[in-house]
Specification:
By secondary structure, the chain is α/β, with parallel strands linked by helices. Helix content is 41%, strand content 12%. The relative contact order is 0.14. One of its GO terms (cellular component) is cytoplasm.
Length: 425
């Protein structure tokens, strides 16, 4: 049982305004992060959490899709924008940013925008942000500095996208989350094994780690696959620990919430709107339970990974890790549940053939909600499978660029050591 929730977001107070006593509060530190944030996972969320902790207000720039989703503006369209909407020209020219620098995104830009908005540490997003971060961008959005992980992000020609802000001292670094990457998640979908459920390093998963996205010169430490190790500290960092307050409506939902995506966000937002003061509890099923009713190699993300993904959502107040499949009397009474919700997706019977929602239906507190979003984890996996060759090529290209940078840095270090040895002699 992990407490979380939008309560923490709602309780944040504006700073930078005069207080009731007439004393001016401390200046608000505005922080900038950017990225394509494709297949948003707990690694992205952890970066945003760390960035928010470095300041007071977090602005997140999200890159556009470009030609990956057949958006190819003609010269005529570009001229029209230049003449009539000059202010938008800069961002229109970035419509091919991800395509040019990173390869095909899994989600559309509209889906990625909404995913970042739903992340509880984000205060504001900038749609269509440039791929290369400049002082002009930071100044435009009144940001003091930008934050990125301790990996490296390169342009199509191998240049550091944060070079300018680093040189000017307006760059901060946070720790990259080990054990998760879009590369690894895509590989799990294509591999169709269940080894990731328990992180067992078997032959099939080893083959995935050795080959998926591997460049001609070996593995990059940033793109390569590593093992995620859950800790109590990480859960505490993601959870807000807020208790339900008098007058709150306790709403319970349950499921796998695998590859936490925009379909889940839309559903949870709909759940959140069911009451004036909602306290939303999400019950997450164990991996073996999910595999029982979903089959194949589901869940793609194990229970520890899914816990952090759900905790990062601003509409969630609390998470039950390893919730029972049947929503029974003990669970409802323990959490004092007022309402149980489920989406339009199929409800699978329990192991004994009974309806897992029989008890809340008997109490008259069960509600089926339509979030108007039909996106499912199955649809996402299908997107990946249909574009397998593109994704493998993307990962190989990305890793090759990173390996070239690593080699250049190593050569520079070796040269500095040689020069220092000569000077000392």
């Amino acid at each position: 049982m992990i407490r979380n929730g939008s309560h923490a977001v709602e309780e944040e107070k504006d700073q930078g305004e005069p207080s009731s006593s007439g004393q001016k509060r401390k200046r608000v530190i505005r922080v900038w992060c950017d990225g394509c944030y494709d297949m948003v996972h707990y690694g992205h969320s952890n970066q945003l959490r760390q960035a928010k902790a470095m300041g007071d207000y977090l602005v997140v720039g999200v890159h556009t899709d470009g030609m990956h989703h057949n958006f190819r503006p003609s010269r005529k369209v570009t001229v029209i924008y230049k003449l009539k909407k000059n202010a938008h020209l800069f961002f229109l020219s970035r419509s091919e940013e991800i395509a040019k620098h990173k390869g095909p995104p899994v989600f559309t830009q509209a889906e990625r925008y909404k995913m970042i908005r739903a992340t509880k540490w984000v205060d504001e997003i900038v749609e269509g942000a440039p791929y290369v971060t400049t002082l002009e961008t930071l100044d435009k959005y009144n940001c003091d500095f930008c934050v990125h992980g301790d990996d490296i992000t390169l342009t199509v020609d191998g240049k550091d996208t944060y070079d300018e802000v680093k040189r000017m001292g307006r760059y901060r670094e946070c720790k990259r989350t080990q054990g998760v990457s879009t590369t690894d998640l895509v590989g799990r979908m294509l591999l169709l094994t269940k080894s990731h459920h328990s992180n067992v390093d078997n032959a099939d998963y080893q083959l995935h780690k050795d080959n998926f996205g591997k460049g001609p010169k070996g593995h990059s430490p940033w793109t390569g696959v590593s093992q995620f190790l859950q800790t109590s500290q990480k859960i505490i960092q993601f959870a807000s620990g807020k208790e339900p307050q008098p007058g709150d409506t306790i709403i319970y939902v349950a499921g796998a919430f695998d590859l936490f995506h925009i379909g889940h966000v839309d559903f949870l937002e709909t759940v959140h709107k069911q009451a004036e003061k909602p306290y939303v509890i999400v019950g997450l099923h164990f991996d073996q339970e999910v595999n029982r009713y979903k089959g194949k190699n589901y869940p793609i993300m194990n229970i520890h990974e899914r816990t952090l993904s759900v905790l990062a959502c601003r509409y969630v107040s609390e998470v039950v890790i390893g919730a029972p499949y049947a929503v029974g009397k003990d669970l409802l009474d323990h959490f004092k549940v007022d309402l149980v919700c489920h989406g339009k997706t199929e409800v699978f019977s329990d192991t004994d053939g009974t309806d897992p929602y029989a008890e809340p239906k008997k109490r008259g507190i069960f509600r089926v909600l339509d979030s108007s979003n039909n996106l499912t984890t199955d649809v996402i996996v299908q997107r990946i499978i249909e574009n397998r060759l593109q994704f493998e090529a993307r990962n190989q290209k990305k890793e090759a660029k990173e390996m070239a940078v690593i080699e250049a840095l190593k050569n520079k270090e070796d040269l500095q050591k040689t020069e220092a040895a000569i000077t000392n002699n």
